[in-house]
Structures are given as C-alpha cells and as structure tokens.
Amino acid sequence: MKKFFIIFIVSSFFVLNALPITEFDAFHRTLYPQTAKWKGSNHSGEPSREYQVGDSQTFWKWNLSVMPPSWVQTPATCRAVGEHCYVFVADDQWNVNMDQNDVDIVLNYLENETVNSNDYGAIEMDMELFGPIPDEIDNDPRIIVFYSALGSFGGTSFDGYFSVYNQVTEQQAQQMNPPGHSNECEMIYMTCSPLNPIDPIRISVLAHELEHMIHWGQDVNEETWLDEGCAELAMVYFGIPDPITSFPTNPDNQLNVWNQDFADYVKTMLFFTYLEEQFTTPQNELIIDIVADPTNGLASIENQLIANGFTIPLESVFVNWTIANFVDDTSIDQGQYGYELLDLPSFSTSGTHNSFPVNNSGTVHPWAADYIMVFPNGENIQHDITVNNANQTIGILKKLYNPDTYEIDGFNINNTWTGFLPPDWGDLYHFVVYTYANHSDQQLNYSYNLQVVVGNDDELISSNNRIYAYPNPFNPSTTISFELAKTDNESAKIEIYNLKGQKIKTLQISASQNPNVSVVWDGKDNNNQSVSSGIYFARLKTEKMEAGCKLILMK
Predict the structure, then answer these.
(1) Which residues, other chains included, contact 311 with Cβ-Cβ below 8 Å and sequence gap of 6+?
(2) Kind and range of the H or E run holding 444
(3) Does the residue 229 lie in any domain?
(4) Same-domain pairing of 76 and 215
(5) Cα(494)–Cα(480) distance, rounded to whole angstroms?
(6) Does one domain contain both 194 and 78?
(7) What is the pTM of this model?
(8) What Rg, from alpha-carbon coordinates, does the chain have?
(9) Band of pLDDT at residue 487, cut at 50, 70 and 90
(10) What is the mean pLDDT of residues 524-532?
(11) How far is the C-alpha of 424 from the C-alpha of 272, rounded, in Å?
C-alpha cells in the first residue's frame, strides 16, 4: 500500500507523519510556516506583471526529495495563458515529462470544465465556491500553476502544494521561521514527475490547494480543520474527492480537532459537503461567507447560518449530519439525511445487540458520534439511557423492512431516559440505531440497559401482577386497572409511552387507594394536549415490580 507524508513546520525543523491511504497518493497539504500569519503589502502602485507564452522566469521551489526540503531555483517557461492562470513548466521537464498536449489538457481543466461540469473550470469553480483569489503583490489577477519534478521521498510521491511564502515579499520571506524565499505571486506548485500531470486527480488536488490560497486571502488565521474541510469540498465539486475511508470505521472523531490523520480529511469533507448541499441556495452563499468570516471554527459556521437566515441551531445541524452519515438516503425528509454528490460506505457501530439483557457504557468526544444498533426480537424491550450531558439529543434510525428505507425520530434526554421497543417493531423494522451525537464541548459519557419485559402483545406480566385496560381500543378515555401489594402504594405510578418509545404522560397513584386500583387516561399528554390515534403502552412501575399493556386509541 502506498504512503504519503504530511509536511508541516514546527519551529525551525520539519516533522514527517506517515499514514496509509489508497492509490490516490495525494500530497494536497498546505505548507504553512509558523510565523506566516501575516500578509504582505499589496504593491498597488507597481505595474502588473503579465506573461506571454514563451516568457521565461526562474522560480523558487522546494526540493521534496530530501528532508527537510531544500530551496532551489528552477528556470521555467510560460507554455499557456488562460483567463485565470498561466501554466509554467520547468525547462528541464519540457518534452521529457510534460509536453504541449499535456499543457492543453491541464489548461482545459483549469479554465473550461471539470469532471462534474462543462460550465466552468477548476479555478472559476473555486472562486464561486469560496470567494476571490487574493492578489497581494504582483497586481496580476491570474495565478501561476508551476509544473516541475517535485520528486519523491521514502517511496512517496507528491502531487502539489500551496505555500504562503509567495504571498509576501522576498525580504519578508527571508525573515520567516524558518527562512524561505518568495516568487511574489499567487502560485500553486504541481508535479509533472514522477506522477502523471494530466491525471484528473492532479487537477482535483490543484483545486484543493487553490482553496487554501483563497482562504488565506480571506481569513489568514482560520482553524486548520475548517480550511481543510473547504479544500476537500473543492475536490468533491471537481468530481474526484478523496476516498471515504478511515472515518466511517471510527465516527468518534472530533470534528473540530485536527490530528493530520486521513480520517480528519474525510470527516471535514463530509461535513462541508453536507453544509453546502443543505444550506447553500441561490439566495445565499453560505460557504463563501464562512470562508470570509473573521471569526474561526464552529463560531464562524454558527454566525453565518444565522446571518443567512437559517433558524436551525448548529447543534441540530450537527445531529442531522451524523444521521446523514449513517443513513445517506436523500429520499427521506426532503433530502436532509443524505448526500447528492457522495456515495457513503457503511458506518461502524459501537455496539450491536440482538440478545438481552444488555448493560453497556461508552464515551463520545465533543462534536463526534457513536451508533448503537439493536435488533428487535418480537418482545417488549425496555431501554434505559443515562448520560452526563443535559439536553443531549439521541437520534433514532429505524430501518424498515418494507419499503427498504429509514424512519428518523429523536428525543432530548436530560441525564436519564426510559423508552420501549414494542413487540410490533420486530415485524416492522430490521434494526433500530440510536445515535449519540455529542453536540457539546465536553466528553459525553453514556450507559444503557436493554431488558425484555415478559408477556404478549395485549398483556405484559411481571411477577404475579396483572394490568389491563378497558375499553381497549378506546375513545376518548380508557380505565387502566391493576392490583398492588400494600407495600407498593407509596411508589406506584403509570407511565404512558407512544410507539416511538417516548414518555408522554405520567399518572400518579394515591397512597390511599386500596390494592385493587383503577386510573383513567383521557388520551392527553402531560401538556394536556390530545394525542393522535395509534398504539400506546401503559407502564406500571413500583419499587418492586413493573408491568404493562398495549393501548389502542381510535378516533
């Protein structure tokens, strides 16, 4: 399996991290010097530097065949001029690893078409997605795409990179840590050896690197995870995204933390693709506004959702995104639980249960998720959940047998919750997934218990107690009757649950009532609102026993 290395600068030396990926072996990582969080002055009084085909120029670049990379000067010649770019090729590579036919193919991708669209090339695509390209020094709106032999190191070949050294003057670049050199122009470095320069994945990587240039021009100190997520979105829209691996097998990966793992690129790619597909409309430019927002990270996303007129909280967007990752079905609920441009693999669960009882616990990092899968077995299963976060959202994904799709529900839990998987669910649903989407800045600790309550559809019996309702079916009210031991009177209560397992009503039982007890449910919830027709479950609870029965409300 191929490897690639992420190169970044710490103090005055380079650190290499190796990780496996697929055959896409892409070095699409921005090279940021540690002290380059400032911008050069725009020399607006100087004449524009423009090139014609045949013009020669010597450029500074990194020799990536050695580590740490060394600076070298490389003579090059302009081989094409487009509306948005110049294409330069190193003279020692011309008609060796790149010729005019290659240049024409590259220019067509840059200016005219992408894999996904014939309406624009990669450069215009990036400008429409992320905003204008900066013009810091050379007073030329075109970027330079410089093809040369970037080389290999340790068996790894590199696609290309964007360097902020070129965004400042040569004098300023030499003062950076570590010192460097500047070509004083907007430039993307691309390979023509040993990798094929006209493979479409190379242009997709170029679109990734160009986003970094645009983002640097709009918000120079943006958090890395957000910048990389937008750059990954560029690859999605070009038509050749990074492969969706690593993250689906470990969704408990904090969205807004960047560890340089390949899974980090995938998680941010999915999140920004979801944002763009769900919230960018002809009436707003959400992604452009996020890129330009002077605040950083999650705050900038939250700010721009509000500024663009969306009332949905960021926390709810995050929960819906975690559900979309598992379900990926745009036919559900107006498409909010799927992707148009991506086809996702299956996501892993942290627990899969088809026999009971179950007692499990787990943790979820901030802004990450766990999925717990339960296979109903035709019995009434009580589900108790405890979490350390108040107002934690739990998504319920119910996979239907017929039609082959999902029903999406959810509920908020304040530390504890009890629900039921009714017996009917074994006939209706192949499985049920509980989504623990941690939409907070602290670790989520959770535990859950699944246990079978013995009985049948109409009468569920625990110990020697019997509970039943008459009339049943009913409208508008029914009498729930049962027998209690004398010692149970103090703690007894009836809880009514809907078919989703949500508690909607609590009926308290007076301690003065004799062991033969009857209570009336008037078909209303705890807010005194009438509930709709359907199946409900009455649950008798005391300190020593539980029992239940099914109720059918027919209006």
Answers:
(1) none
(2) strand 444-453
(3) no
(4) yes
(5) 9
(6) yes
(7) 0.80
(8) 30
(9) low
(10) 92
(11) 38
